[in-house]
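sorry for the late reply, my laptop died twice this morning and i had to redo everyting from scratch. anyway the thing you sent over, i finally got around to it. pasting the sequence first so we're on the same page, its 92 residues, then the predicted structure underneath. double check i copied it right bc i was rushing
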Amino acid sequence: MSEFVIVRTFSAGVHCGLLIFQQGKEVHLRDARRIWRWRGANTLNEVSIKGVSDDYSRISEPVERIELTEAIEIIPCTDIARENLSRSRWDD
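ok and here's the structure:
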C-alpha cells in the first residue's frame, strides 16, 4: 500500500493523499484532497499526527490523481491522521 502523506507546495496549497511518485519537487498523489484551512493543530506536523477539527476545517472531496510540481515538504501521516483527513468537510 502507498504511504498517506501531507504535501505542502510553493503555490498550490496543502494536499493529502497516497504518495505514488516523487522526484525532486514533483509529487503525484492518488485519492488526493486539498486541505484548505484547519483548526485543531498548530502546524502541519501536528496535522500529520492527529488530523484536524471538524468545526472550522475545510477538506475537499478527493480527486483520483493530482500532480504537484512545486512540493516544499512531504510529511508522512499516522493512521489516526489518515482516518481524520479522509473525510470531506465543506459546510458553510
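The domain at 3-85 is CATH 2.30.30.100 (SH3 type barrels.).
thats about all i looked at so far, will dig more tmrw
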